Amino acid sequence: QVQLVESGGGLVQAGGSLRLSCAASGRTFNTYTMGWFRQAPGKERVFVAAITWVGSTDYADSVKGRFTISRDNAKNTLYLEMNSLKPEDSAAYYCAARRPGKREYDFWGQGTQVTVSS
After folding, report:
1. Alpha-carbon distances of 15 from 58, 69, 85, 86, 103, rounded to whole Å
2. Three-state SS at 57
3. Which of 5, 23, 95, 105 is deepest in the core (most CB within 10 A)?
4. Cβ pair 6, 21 in contact under 8 A
5. Residue 75 and residue 25: Cα distance in Å, rounded?
6. 28 falls in which pLDDT band (50, 70, 90)?
7. Which long-range contacts (CB under 8 A, 24 or more apart) does 25-33 make?
8. CA–CA gap between residue 66 and residue 83 (Å, rounded)
9. Element housing 67 (H / E)
């Protein structure tokens, strides 16, 4: 079992930056693929970025070049550095963990709100 707690959300002006963090419990964090997802009001939750246990990354086209996902396995923490933020980036952001061999994410945080004003 893994518990995930996001932090770092807030209100920022367009063009600004935020860094989200996701603190994970459990001794096997460093074996999981970790991801960030977001959900805007009235819309489905969508993929933002992911990072494997060896550090390979993947991004949604909408955030490539602006967002950077990283992890610190020693601290059991996942990060999402968000730059050049746009109003359309406003959403609740969730971190998630996927166990080795699994196709779906097993564990989810409670989310942190990001609001980008124009």
Report:
1. 23, 18, 5, 6, 35
2. strand
3. 95
4. yes
5. 10
6. confident
7. 25/76, 26/1, 26/2, 26/76, 28/2, 29/2, 29/73, 29/76, 29/97, 30/73, 30/76, 31/99, 31/100, 32/2, 32/97, 32/98, 32/99, 32/100, 33/97, 33/98, 33/100
8. 5
9. strand 67-72
pLDDT, tens digit, for every residue of 75-91? 999 999 999 999 999 99
Tokens read off for 89: 């980036």
- Which amino acid does the sequence have at 7? S
Which amino acid type is present at position 25? S
| pLDDT, position 39 | 98
Q: What is the DSSP letter of 43?
A: S
